[in-house]
C-alpha cells in the first residue's frame, strides 16, 4: 500500500516540483494528471525556446529530476510512489521535441507518451525495476518519452506533404 501524501509536503519546493505542483496527489491516474501539467509547460517552452535551448532545459529538468524524485521517494519511504510525477512531465516534454505546432500534435504526443509509460515495453520495465533512487524513477519515463518521440516524428513525417 502506498502511503498518503500529506498536503503540507507541497510547501517544500522539492516535493512540490516532484509531485507536479500537487497533480500527483490526484486520487486516481496521478501519472496522467502529472502529464497534463506538462502541457502548459510545453506550450510556454515551444513559444519561447528554439530547439537547442529546449533540449538544454529538458536535459536540466531531467538531471534535477533525479534529485527531486529521489528526495521525495526517500521522504515517502517508497521507491517510485505514483504521486511522484516530475518524471512524467519530463517524459512528455521529451515526446514533444521538434513537434509541429497545433493541438492535434499535443494530443497525439500526450496519448503516445501515456501509452508507452503505462505499457512499459522493453527495456522500460527492466530499467524501472533495475535502477534504484531518483535515477530509476526518471529513466523509465525518459525512455517512454523517447519511444513516443520516435512514433510522433514518424507520424509527422507521413503527415507532411
Spell out the key features of this protein.
mainly alpha, 161 residues
Task: Note down, in words, how this protein is organized.
This protein is an all-alpha fold. The protein has one domain. 70% of the residues lie in helices and 0% in strands. The protein is globular and about 50 Å long.
Task: Summarize the biggest pleated sheet.
Answer: none
* Rg from Cα: 15 Å
In whole angstroms, how far apart are the ends? 51 Å
Q: What are the low-pLDDT stretches, counting only 5+ consecutive residues below 50?
A: none
- DSSP summary: helix tally: 7
Q: Based on helices, strands and strand pairing, what is the structural class?
A: mainly alpha
State the total count of DSSP E strands: 0
Specify the overall morphology.
globular
Report the mean per-residue pLDDT as an integer.
95
Brief overview, please?
It is built from 7 helices and no strands.
Please write out the topology.
Elements: H1 13-18, H2 30-48, H3 51-76, H4 86-95, H5 103-119, H6 124-130, H7 133-159
Helix pairs in contact: 2-4, 3-4, 3-7, 4-5, 4-7, 5-7, 6-7
